[in-house]
Amino acid sequence: MVDIDAPGIVLFDMDSTLITIECIDELAALVGKKQQVSAVTEAAMRGELDFAESLRARVKLLAGVHERQLQQLLEPIPFSVGAQALIAWFQQRGWRTALVSGGFTWFSGQVAEALKLDAHKANQLQWQQHCLTGTVAEPIVDGQSKADYLHTLAQRWQLPMSNTIAVGDGANDKAMLQAAGLGIAYCAKPALQEVADWCIQEPDLMQLANYLETMKSRTSETH
């Protein structure tokens, strides 16, 4: 069990975890292609498609979207219930907080800044004259690179993997949850719930803080 009184790292997925939307689906809505893109996103999140291939195909449909249109999606940032409170709870305990996303740095940068996260990593959309080209920079942040990023952060901050927590909702979060000391599935697809150490079924991230407090008091009772 992780020790919340010792320094650690909590790493979150972004879309449908820290925030309530799937950014790529909402971007597609701006060009009238939400249905097409959402269907691909759903299949990828269930683990039925190769994530990198599905991402390239979805981004291709976004060619021509102007940067001004993207900003509409984050005014205000649609945080999940409890997201800000949970991040603050970890930060008060001296934990490092970070996000890693198969989504895009354009969004993750703003989310990370608003939450005062220590680090963030996501895919980079490519632009020409403030419009999306329909391409994404390689290499793509997929499930394995999410797990690798957790290892990278643990090395950077010299913290044990046993005191890391990963929180996500889709199949591409599997490797990350399995790599962490504690893997949390948040309102997740069945593929992820199967590998999680604990599942949050209600849309309220503060349930994780309650769970950790409960585990801590149980541990102290048995000692």
From TrEMBL:
The keyword Ligase does not apply. Pathway: Amino-acid biosynthesis; L-serine biosynthesis; L-serine from 3-phospho-D-glycerate: step 3/3. Gene3D superfamilies: HAD superfamily/HAD-like (3.40.50.1000). Keywords: Amino-acid biosynthesis, Hydrolase, Magnesium, Metal-binding, Serine biosynthesis. InterPro entries: HAD-like_SerB, HAD-like_sf, HAD_sf, PSP. GO terms for molecular function: hydrolase activity. Its EC number is 3.1.3.3. It catalyses: O-phospho-L-serine + H2O = L-serine + phosphate; O-phospho-D-serine + H2O = D-serine + phosphate. Its cofactor is Mg(2+). The keyword Metal-binding applies. PANTHER family: PHOSPHOSERINE PHOSPHATASE (PTHR43344). Belongs to the HAD-like hydrolase superfamily. SerB family. This is Phosphoserine phosphatase. It comes from Pseudidiomarina terrestris. The gene is serB.
